[in-house]
Amino acid sequence: MRIDGMDAIFAPRSVAVIGASSDPKRIGGRPVDFLKRHGFQGTILPINPKSPEVQGLTAYPSITEAPSTPDLAVIALPAPLAVQAVEDCAARGVRGAVIFSSGFSEVNAEGAALQARMVDIAREGGMRLVGPNCLGIANVRHNLYATFTPGVEKHLPKPGGVSIVSQSGAFGSYCMTLVRMRGLGVNLWATTGNSCDVDFADAVAYCAQDDETRVIMGYLEGATDRDRLVEALELARAREKPVVMMKVGRSAVGAEAAQSHTASLAGSDAVYDAAFRQYGVYRAQSVDEMFDVTYACAESASMMQGDRLGLVTVSGGVGVLMADEAEKLKLDVPALPDHAQKKLKEVLPFAGVRNPVDVTAQLVNQIDLLETNMDVLFGDGEIDGAIIFMSTVGLVADLNEAIRTGLERIREKFPGRPMLFCSLTEPEGRAAYEKSGFIVFEEPTRAVRAMAALRYFARSFARAGEHDPIPELSDLSPLPDDMVNEIEAKALLAEAGIAIVRETLAKTPEAAAEAAQEMGYPIVLKIASPDILHKSDIGGVALNLRSVEEVRSAGARILELASEKAPDARIDGLVVAEQAAPGLEAILGVTQDPAFGPVVMFGLGGVLVEALGDVSFRVAPFGPAEARRMIDEIHGRKLLDAFRGAPERDIGALADALARLSAFAAHHGAALETIDVNPLIVGPSGQGAVAADAVIVPTRRGGH
Description:
alpha/beta, Rossmann fold, 5 domains, seven-stranded mixed β-sheet, six-stranded antiparallel β-sheet, Acyl-CoA_Synth/Transferase, CoA-bd, ATP binding, Acyl-CoA synthetase (NDP forming)
């Protein structure tokens, strides 16, 4: 990961401000003001050729004339002058720079050329750059505010465990301010702007390896380097640092121009969703959700290690509301065991004790019974996490003391099981709960969603050490430069270990009949053409042929229809294939995503999948365990189990085929445009899965 040299940016001992202004309200004046006023302990070197003094500090005409070499330079100059400043800094040995200046690649080709030159200069000099066109960076623990955001002019965030990385400066400033206003502490803050060197992924990786960071909040408009982003997210997961992401932009990319089923179903947003699930990122759908989840992850003593959620409520209706939300988020709200219900009934005779446990408003008269209730819930009920809804009880100061101390004792007795407290509270009451380490929400469904996020990250962190080897493929043939027919496509996939039906190519209907006699019936006959991708659309497929005459007649008819409906298509002949044993039809595919490269798709239903859109995606490559999670995501997943008289399907073979296809796609990389394996026939458990048809579209096409 490219985090070398970034200590000079986030933990410098000295900072030069190039373009420093005596006016603390100007872009070049703000960082000087912030560094002075907010207590940066290192050396501040204002650089201004027109003034010997800036804001009470000795200023220097250029970086070359500064008395010492700073670790970090903040550059607030017009674009051409900024390039010269980078050159001067590199010559002086400065190791990092934050560039506020605009007028680079975000503007035009001339600006892009200036930016490229600046990057070349920095890399030759071993210097890291943040920006240009960015709002800057901060390290709250070090009182380092290398920024011009008004968000830290009057009020500073307290030091804490939330690090923020944003491609947008304005949104990044908004996030830091909201974190402060919600009472959370900030550690590192980075806005990456044009990301000419230090990009979003580099900043995430730096935060992930930082011991003081508990949770990473991210704002992403688009990935600039797939490998760096994946590596950063994997590092964050390995170090158990939750990444809570706001990713904007939900438009599909390239679907209309694509000829394959896979590409038409793969929009850029669907791929981002899949990639985030694959690498353990929580994608928030709103600003409120992003902050709720960040808050829970930053302040909770533990993640939720199992699916069993306990709900304790003074309102039966709110209990149902929370249970409904939990079910939607795939948390289990199990009925407590009979012995646990009996024990609760003995101490809480007025309560509904099944789960949700409705303690009713009567609990207010015996508030100490809440502790007893939680003891039974965690001990006898074996619940993994709990939400306690107390309506307006949190507004009553003397009751809060009893509730809080009782819950503290429960936490000591059952460590590792998160408890969220949900109630209206006065600010001082909320602060007391949070000081005791409890997460407080006012709205109950938001509390449930936060708990679901704690469960999500627990699952993700458990996968960090998972043994899920990617299939090793060797001796793969190179992809052809042009389209190939079905038989050639399946032969390429067979090299990757994907099972295919027995088949042969026949030039004429008579040759097809002879081949069928040797192969045995029933037979499937199809047009063989690199130019006809959807054979059934032109009548180019005949199923369940059981005699020489049927094969000969069907072959003649298929060739006639191909000539009539696709007169310009190249015709290689007829595919003569054994008819696969009955099974469940699946579609496997590969498409190229602009951000993530080769992406694998899975769905059920053959041609119906395009109408239903019930598909899942993963970034290639991945192993069989990840493939099983991919399989589990589709709505039609139950069809793979024993269902209405149909047998359980060979999910292991299906997962292996997906993993092998992902390794094949990763091996060929950008040389591959799309693959459709449609259908893959998934047999009963233990009987495998076989590709009955396949299309491979290489990136480089010939003249057809």
